Amino acid sequence: MPELFDLRVKARSLAYLFTAGAGLGLVTLAFPHDDEVRDLQLVVLAGIAVTIAGVVYVQADRVRAWHLHLALALGTLILTFANYYVGESSLYPLLYTFTALYAFYFFPLGTALAHVAFIAACYSVLLAIQEPASPVVRGLLAVGTPMVAGLLISRLLERVGLETGHAEQRERALRQSEARTRLVLDNAPDAFITTDSDGVILTWNVAAERMFGWTAAEAIGKPMRSLIIPPEFRERHNERRRELIEAEGTVAMQFYDMVLQRRNGERFDGEATVSRVVVGDEILLSGFLRDVTERQRRQEEREELLRAQVARAEAERVADMVSGTQVLVDAALQSASLEEILADLVAGLQRVLGVDAAAIFLAGEDERLRLGASSFGTPPASIEPIAVGDGIAGRVARSGEPLFVQDPDPADLRDPGVRRLKVDSLIAVPMRTGDTVIGVLEVCASPPHRFTADDLGMLRLAADRVALAIAHARVYEREHDVAVTLQRSLLPERLPELPGLEVAAEYLPAAAEPGVGGDWYDVIPIPGGAAGLVMGDVAGKGLAAASMVGRLRSALRAYALEGHDPAMVLQQLNRLVWADAGESQMVTLLYLVVDPAQGVARWVNAGHVPPLLVGGNGAPRFLEGSTSVPLGVLPFPSYDEVSVAMEPGSTIVLYTDGLIEVPGAHIDEGMSRLAQEVKSAPEEPKALCRYLLGHLVPERGASDDVALLTLRNVPLGDRFRVTFANSPESLASMRTLLRRWLRHAGGAEHEIAEITTACSEAATNAIEHAGSVEDAPFEVTGRIRDRDVDITVRDFGAWRTPRSGDQGRGLSLMRALMDTVDVTPTPEGTRVRLERALQGNGGPD
Amino acid sequence: MREGLVGIDIDAKGDVVVARVTGELDIAGASRTGDRIAGSVPTSAAGLVVDFSDLEFIDSSGIAMLFGLARRLDSRRQRLRVVATPGGPVSRVLDIVEFERAAPVHSQPETAIADLE
């Protein structure tokens, strides 16, 4: 139970009690009594009581509880002595009740009872001396009187105390509460100020001191406005204050934003929470004031952070879009043609940008825009070209500025796919490379999508990427076109006629990796009737590879025509590739010379896959001997020539590794498949090529370029018919063929030589006859029946009478060498028929 | 050196120029071969031996070239000897056109050279 009274109140009450008691005692002396000595004793006792009262009163602020107990006990003793001196008629015992009353009123119950016991003991002693009554009555009197009186009076006083004591208690509680509140307010971060209705400061807490720089002592008693309100706001402040004071009824808490001023004149933004407090008939205003600069700073920081986060999110979104665009641009660039690239781009853009339609228009040199691709797959040719300046795309192309169109005019939507879409908003951005607008990127949104102006910036970024991609694609396509053209020009358009030999070739570009490969083949008629077969593979693709092929091809042709051995040819080529150090090229190359007259194939292999020989009567076998390093690997490699017999009827197959590459399988597997397939393939080279491609290349297409070249040493039977180019170089080929055929027919060496010489003379005439008729071929047919050789050489030119003896000598030579020579001029040309019966080795002529 | 199918080796044996012709001599290379050989014979030379020992083929244009050489040398008072393997295809042709009328044909280059020295 909390102490209701502080010690000061108790002390003063004790002083009042003692003074009253002493006063009462002295008053009794004024009444008639019988003993003078007692008077003196009573005065002394009253003096002691008054002295105690005086000391207690003066020391009320420092008095301790036990001082009061001692004083009260002394008081009880003084009273007892006084009663003794007054005698049995004394009223003084009544005074015991006051003492008990005091104890009950101010002391806890236990202590109060102890005092009552002491009083009772004193009174009992007094009664025992003064009045010989029964001990029980005396005891009851001693205890009961002060008890009953004390209790009754204290009850009575308690009622009075409801008025006086409670007010005091309330005041006390308020003081304590104030102390607590002050404690809280002083430690509060916010300034707490209380003013009276005139705005004079009543309280000023520690935070207010800190905030404004005025101490409480300086502030209290001064008008608040003069201390903390900047002059220009003071009038307004006064108005607010008056409004608040004069307002009727209860006033809710008010919040104000205000500019406040510190002692040093510094101003800051503040915020006040003000309440009106009515105390009795006085109206007070109390308010908390906060310095919001810090909060504003934090708020600004938060906003800044938020802006940064938003910006970062936006940057990330843009980055995603850009990288997304880049990915799709990169992916699109894998496509072979600009058309495909554009189609891939619009589809990708539609996805990455999350738009409902996307289209790319390309600017042509004729000031017109043509649809490059639409996400609806609208065929570009189906859209009329748009003049620059016309429509949305045209306007963007003219101004070079993006256009953001809400609810576009359907007439401006050229793409039927877009027109079907309910276009809500449309953005068209120019695609530029440098200062040139190369086209327009148009995207559409249909409900529930709708573009905002923010999307425009993003689209410009996308358009830049796409423009770059298209520019690259165009360059790439140009390069690609050049390379394709170059490569096509490098592959023989038409294979040469090789007497007695059949050749066929196929070139199949890779399906998976469109581009220009470095594969190439060539067939070179070598003077003397042999054929040079070339199969090569320049590492890499594109223009560089194609131009390397070009250089190798012409160099090889030159060396081959000079009649160099295959090994020498490759050494020369290696020098060429090696010297091209900047390119760090590597070339595999197989050069194989078939000499049908001798029935021999000689070759040199620089790191290429081995050719396959399909013999007349043996199993197919790879010509694997002596493979050297590829060209361009060593400065001076040694190339060894290897030869193999090539019987009439046998076929040789040259190829690049694209033919035998099986994904995931070893190259040997592909080679054995080739050897296997060849067994059941047709013999005729063209059919053989198609068969091999059909059976070895997967249906989805080759993974690498495939070049395939086959040559068959055609077995010459009893008849042949061969057409030769109208050129002196054909003569050697014709002779080679004839020698082979005559040997086959069983002619003796001298017979073979003579018949060949005669035919060569006839063919020489045919070449000369052709004269101005360019490229008119001549034809040689041979027939052998029994042992009679019958050869006819036909030309398609005009017969000319021999002008000199030389040509006359040719005719006489023919006549000397053959049994019959028959020259028949016809309107179409001249036919020379030569006949001779073979004797064989039996007997020379 | 080679001219198409024709190989030509020029060598000087004292006063005598030896032109060894190999391969096949036809209209494709005949006139160039003739010019080349004629150009290699200095006026100081006693004569020329055209060695056809390893020539595999000759036709009327080759013969014409040979007759032409004979005429040019004759006008410079230089002599011509031709070598051909007897029984070979070249010999056969030389016989048919009766080249012996223009210049002697030897079977060995040594005898031809000795003949001119």
User: Can you tell me the CATH class of the domain at 19-85 and 92-103 in chain B?
Assistant: Alpha Beta
Strand order of the largest sheet of chain A: 8-7-6-11-10-9
State the fourth-level CATH superfamily of the domain at 19-85 and 92-103 in chain B.
STAS domain
Oligomer: heterodimer
Terminal Cα span of chain A: 162 Å
Number of domains of chain A: 5
Order of helices and strands of chain B: EEEHEEHEHEH
Q: How many beta-strand runs of chain A?
A: 27
The overall strand count of chain B is 7
| Helical/strand content category of chain B | alpha/beta
Q: How helix-rich are the residues of chain A, as a percent range?
A: 40-55%
Q: Give Rg of chain B in angstroms.
A: 13 Å
The chain-level mean pLDDT of chain A equals 79
The fold-level CATH name of the domain at 19-85 and 92-103 in chain B is Transcription Regulator spoIIAA
CATH architect. name of the domain at 19-85 and 92-103 in chain B: 2-Layer Sandwich
In short:
The complex is a heterodimer of chains A (845) and B (117). Chain A is an alpha+beta fold.
Q: Keywords, please?
A:
heterodimer; A: 845 residues; alpha+beta; Beta-Lactamase; six-stranded antiparallel beta sheet; 27 strands; B: Transcription Regulator spoIIAA; 4 helices; 7 strands
Describe this entry's structure for a reader:
The complex is a heterodimer of chains A (845) and B (117). Chain A has 845 residues and is α+β, with helices and mostly antiparallel strands. Chain A folds into 5 domains: 7-178; 188-292, PAS domain (Beta-Lactamase, 2-Layer Sandwich); 334-482, GAF domain (Beta-Lactamase, 2-Layer Sandwich); 491-713, Phosphatase 2c, domain 1 (4-Layer Sandwich), CATH 3.60.40; 719-842, 2-Layer Sandwich (Heat Shock Protein 90). Helix content of chain A is 48%, strand content 22%. In chain A, helix 1 runs parallel beside helix 3 (65-86), helix 11 (292-333) packs antiparallel against helix 12 (338-353) and helix 15 (453-490) runs parallel beside helix 16. The radius of gyration of chain A is 65 Å and the shape is rod-shaped. Chain A starts with 6 loop residues before the first helix and ends in an 8-residue tail after the last strand. The model of chain A has no long low-confidence stretch (mean pLDDT 79). With 117 residues, chain B is of the alpha/beta class. In chain B, 36% of the residues lie in helices and 31% in strands. Chain B has 4 helices and 7 strands. Chain B has helices at 30-39, 60-75, 89-96, 109-116; strands at residues 2-3, 6-13, 16-25, 47-51, 55-58, 79-83, 105-106. In chain B, strands 1, 2, 3, 4, 5, 6 and 7 form a 7-stranded mixed β-sheet that branches. Chain B is globular. Chain B starts with a strand and ends with a helix. The mean pLDDT of chain B is 90. Classes of the chains: A alpha+beta (845), B alpha/beta (117). Chain A binds chain B through residues 527-528, 562-563, 728-729, 731-732, 735, 750, 753-754, 756-757, 760-761, 764, 767-768, 806-807, 809-810, 812-813, 816-817, and chain B through 2, 4-5, 24, 26-28, 57-61, 63-64, 87-89, 92-93, 96-97.
